[in-house]
Design a protein that fits this description.
A three-stranded mixed β-sheet has the order 1-2-3. The protein has a single domain, classed as BolA-like (GMP Synthetase, Chain A, domain 3), CATH 3.30.300.90. A hairpin with an 8-residue loop joins strand 1 and strand 2. By secondary structure, the protein is α+β, with helices and mostly antiparallel strands. Helix 1 crosses helix 2.
Length: 94
């Protein structure tokens, strides 16, 4: 069986994930390096029932203030994408 590579996330990413979990209790949140993390860029996925019935842009307006609160401007530049999904969207029901 092939071993899965474990990626150590930098402190600013783990800080962000914890802040998102506090803001959206019960959410699923994950970070993935873009291009293998060579340039320190990440995409974040947040799955929360709080997004049900909320438009895509409005979801972003809920999440990005968390980023702005906990990360420096330079760290924010390393977050290239935030996916904000409902549980049913994750399951492919919508």
């Amino acid at each position: 069986m092939a071993q899965q590579k474990v990626i150590q996330l930098p402190q600013f990413v783990t800080t962000l994930l914890a802040a998102i979990e506090r803001r959206f209790p019960g959410c699923q949140v994950d970070a993935e390096p873009i291009n293998g993390g060579k340039h320190g860029n990440y995409r974040i996925a947040v799955v929360s029932g709080e997004f049900e019935g909320v438009g895509l842009m409005d979801r972003q307006e809920l999440v990005w203030p968390v980023v702005q609160q906990v990360l420096s401007h330079d760290e924010q530049r390393n977050i290239l994408m935030i996916l904000s999904l409902t549980p049913s969207e994750l399951e492919g029901e919508d």
